[in-house]
Amino acid sequence: MPTPRPAPPDTSVTSGAPATSSTPTWHERHGRYPRADSVADFKHNLAAVRERIAAACRRAGRDPGEVRLLPVSKTFDAAHLRLAYAAGCRQLGENKVQEAQCKWEALADLADLRGSVIGHLQTNKARRVARFASEFQALDSLRLAEALDRRLQAEGRGLDVFVQINTSGEASKYGLAPQEAAAFLRALPAFGALRVRGLMTLALFSAEAARVRACFALLRQLRDLLRQDAPAGIGLDELSMGMSGDFEIAIEEGATVVRIGQAIFGARTLPDSHYWPTNGVP
Ligand SMILES: *Cc1c(COP(=O)(O)O)cnc(C)c1O
Known about the structure:
By secondary structure, the protein is of the alpha/beta class.
């Protein structure tokens, strides 16, 4: 993979704050995050990420208490999740539900560990999420909403959900088109077990900071628009956006949840094409 050049200074930001305008993406570090193999490694990486979150909040004039760090443990084994727990993590995100279920079952003794499913879900796997997850961030169809609701009602549970929006326009990314979101939200109150918390997106995977920022800004603007006539009971306070390579830009654009894997757990050995249908442009 060619190493992208550092992003040029971004002159087209929507936030208009000069201090934040040149925040780069870190996708070029991809594959170079050191592996965490001890509680001390996890504590160190978590502290470094929290410091970067705090610095991004300072630049944006935000309170770091508004930004939840969701560590993403996909591809790492249960033993590493246990180390993350020992370092203080109480909620972990997984992209694939089968993998999540295996690991969470192995960690069932950690009573206060909660699981978040952040990746695309096939309707026939809704039962697993309804049973094992405390949060689902990739709701993108009414068929899935219906299947989740039915399974949750049977389990007597509720589930926090985020509606995934495709802000990059890439065919390879899951999520609703922005213009589909309003009608989608109007249909959700029918599914009483789903507690809608907000929107989620994956930005363009790019070293061009301005193009990444545009994805995050679009999600925030969409949220602000949708909030004006959201149905009763549909919460739109949360914006889940930003990962290891771009979370600082996401925070500058209003993220309330950042989903961070590699900067905490270390580089993954599997390529991202294992998780997303194709890689984005570098
Ligand atoms: C893997 C993943 C992340 C975290 O990516 P990192 O590069 O490991 O920080 C965030 N969101 C989703 C949906 C993911 O699948």
